[in-house]
Design brief:
Layout (H helix, E strand, L loop, with lengths): L7 H4 L2 E4 L2 E4 L2 E2 H4 L1 H5 L4 H11 L6 E5 L5 H13 L3 E3 L10 H11 L4 E8 L3 E8 L5 E10 L1 H4 L9 E7 L7 H14 L9 E13 L2 E9 L6 E3 L3 E10 L7 E4 L6 H12 L1 H16 L38
Parallel strand pairs: 4-5, 4-6, 9-10
Antiparallel strand pairs: 1-2, 2-3, 6-7, 7-8, 8-13, 10-11, 11-12, 11-13, 13-14
């Protein structure tokens, strides 16, 4: 009879215990603990990102009651673009202390920047950008709003990716534009290592000054060569005033080129009312030529209706009117 062969694992001091190899009383999993230290779990990565998150900018985006559907969609687009933003329900726009309530909400939610949408007469849209609680704050008039769903552009990008901010050189031409540039940078720039941000850039926010107004565009960065594709939204900002405080304070700058929307609509109505004024003047002139007074009371207005010219006295084209029947 031949000898039974022993398992090679027994010679090497290895045995199987519940499907695991044991070497000198320690499992292989224990030997791989050093390898597991190199692997970073999601909570560990989050703690590291949180420790490196130095720029703690938080933006509060909210609106007052009375905004239109277009303004509401515009506000939702900004919330999607700015992942470091927070939202709140609409506020009562008829309150006298509306801006004080906004400052208290920002402090309670630990936000140091604020974007407030206000609409008047459901026609005029205004945008406040403020540094809470010390200021400054800027009041803009918003024109030509086009949302993402309305444009339906080809461009696309990942939500949470950080943008590149592109400013027109005219922002460095005057002190008030330098202040606006710094405020826009702090509001639209997503902080690095923010918990909701992505660690790369794939879009560009452009702020261009044309006709003394700020034009906003959002582009997708397609290639490293700088090829861009527009995503949306679009809007135009006209600076009205800059205040020293948050939604209040002394006026640091007032735009002399800004025309109030009510004045603009009044000028348009006056330009189109010229035809109506001409009709009124013609009617008044016609009425002025009518005979009036006591000496004209016995005149019959239908007296000359049947007054005709005898055929013998007709001349030229008047002869065509009369045809004498011969018998």
């Amino acid at each position: 009879m031949g000898k039974r062969k022993r398992n090679s694992a027994s010679n090497s001091g290895e045995t199987k215990v519940s499907g695991k190899k044991v070497t000198n009383g320690s499992t292989v999993a224990d030997n791989n603990k050093d390898d597991e230290k190199d692997y970073m779990f999601s909570d560990e990565v989050g703690s590291i990102r949180k420790s490196k998150w130095i720029n703690r900018q938080r933006v509060m985006i909210l609106a007052a009651r009375g905004i239109t559907a277009r303004d509401r969609h515009m506000m939702l687009d900004l919330k999607n673009l700015l992942v470091h933003s927070k939202g709140e329900p609409k506020l009562d726009s008829e309150k006298k202390d509306l801006f004080n309530d906004v400052n208290e909400i920002c402090e309670a939610r630990n936000c140091n920047k604020c974007i407030l949408f206000v609409n008047k007469k459901r026609k005029d849209s205004y945008l406040w950008v403020s540094n809470v609680p010390d200021g400054p704050s800027v009041k803009f008039f918003v024109e030509n709003i086009h949302t993402m769903k309305e444009l339906n552009m080809i461009g696309n990008c990942l939500k949470g990716s950080r943008p590149l901010l592109s400013f027109d050189p005219q922002f460095d031409s005057s002190p008030h534009m330098i202040l606006i540039k710094e405020l826009i940078t702090q509001v639209f720039g997503i902080p690095r290592y923010h918990p909701k941000s992505m660690p790369f850039f794939d879009k560009v926010y452009t702020f261009t000054i044309i006709d003394k107004r700020i034009w906003f565009r959002n582009f997708q960065l397609i290639s490293e060569e700088g090829k861009l594709e527009e995503i949306g939204p679009r809007f135009i900002l006209s600076v009205i005033k800059i205040f020293s405080g948050s939604f209040s304070g002394s006026v640091l700058y007032s735009n002399p080129n800004f025309v109030n929307p009510n004045v603009r609509r009044r000028l348009i109505r006056q330009s189109t009312s010229g035809k109506y004024r001409d009709k009124i003047m013609i009617r008044e002139g016609r009425d002025a030529k009518k005979p009036r007074g006591e000496e004209y009371q016995d005149i019959d207005p239908l007296e000359k209706v049947f007054a005709t010219i005898p055929p013998e006295k007709a001349k030229g084209a008047e002869k065509v009117v009369f045809h004498r029947i011969r018998t």
